[in-house]
Amino acid sequence: MSDTPCGSRTVIEADEVAKKLPKWIKLNVGGKIFVTSLTTLTKEPGMLSRMFSQDGAMDPSDKDEQGAYLIDRSPKYFEPIVNYLRSGQLVYDTNINPQGILEEARFFGVESVIPQLEDAVRRLNITSDAPLTRRDVVKAIIQTCNLSELRFQGINLSGADLRRLDLRKVNFKYACLSRCNLSHANLTNCCLERCDLSHADMSYAQMISLKALCANMEGANLQECNFEDPTGSRSNLEGVNLKGACLEGSNMAGVNLRVANLKNANMKNCNLRAAILAGADLEKCNLSGSDLQEANLRGANFKDAQLELMLTPLHMSQAIR
What we know:
The protein contains seven helices and three strands; from the N terminus they run αββααβαααα. It has helices spanning 6-20, 38-41, 47-51, 75-87, 98-108, 114-127, 134-143; strands at residues 24-29, 32-37, 69-71.
């Protein structure tokens, strides 16, 4: 029998384990190599500490052909964790979702960093609904191929400054563009279907072949806009809400405004030749000086509308009520 005391044997075994582990550890995390010190990995209680601790509480994983310990986790989210163990500071790139880092911290049992990450995730969730800015839109335009459709469907762009941007063929369906500045913008062939454009500034914009069915443009400024397509294609604003909007001086020849709400709208000096206004509500609308030649006005409501200085007299065949 050995005369070595039991306590001494435990110390000897621990020393043997310590001798087996080098001061520097190489890790292969999801195919990416990390080199860090044994002190860093054992700094906090948790899975990494147990894997590389002297008491051998948990066997390290298998090694690859280069001798690096294999860990089947995401290197993108692991890197901020190992940097935190090195410095005690949580630092990560803005393009990395803190939710992913939080999951790694929980997996490896790095408890001290979890409150910071939970707070970061909460702040991210609060700001995730914040409206996009001009910079975001310009970046998306630059990065999108001309042959691909650029979509901002359902996106919050309220209050964004989009003046003078070339937004041709962009899909804004269901987007929130309330109080957005789109003055002098090119919106040719855009889809604004069911958009919220209330109180937006779209003055002097190009709106050729626009699709804006049932869009909300209440109180919007569309002064001096151009809707007329030389090829004869109509802009479709059927069912649009233009209540109280300003369209003064706009070229709206051939525009489809069927069943549109134009109550109290300012349409002075508008070119509405061959426009479709069937069933539209034009109550208290100011149409002074406008050109409604060949416009379809069947079933339109002209109650208390201002019709002074019309360029062409309204014809009975247009069926005004």
